[in-house]
């Protein structure tokens, strides 16, 4: 696959691959690891 600015589903090859990836994030199969001792963590505690 050649990536071009006009590639509709970039960075994915197709809508199907895009939806599969979205589903994995929604099901929490993928996540971004938290940084322990983050300076903002204490500011967010109790606000959710």
TrEMBL record:
State the Pfam families in the record: YacG
GO annotation terms (biological process): regulation of DNA-templated transcription
Keywords from the UniProt entry: Metal-binding, Zinc
The UniProt GO MF terms for this protein read: zinc ion binding
Name the Gene3D superfamilies for this protein: Erythroid Transcription Factor GATA-1, subunit A
What is this protein's name? DNA gyrase inhibitor YacG
């Amino acid at each position: 696959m050649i990536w071009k600015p006009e590639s509709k589903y970039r960075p994915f090859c197709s809508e199907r691959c895009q939806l599969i990836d979205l589903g994995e994030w929604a099901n929490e199969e993928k996540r971004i690891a938290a940084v322990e001792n983050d300076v903002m963590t204490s500011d967010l505690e109790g606000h959710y």
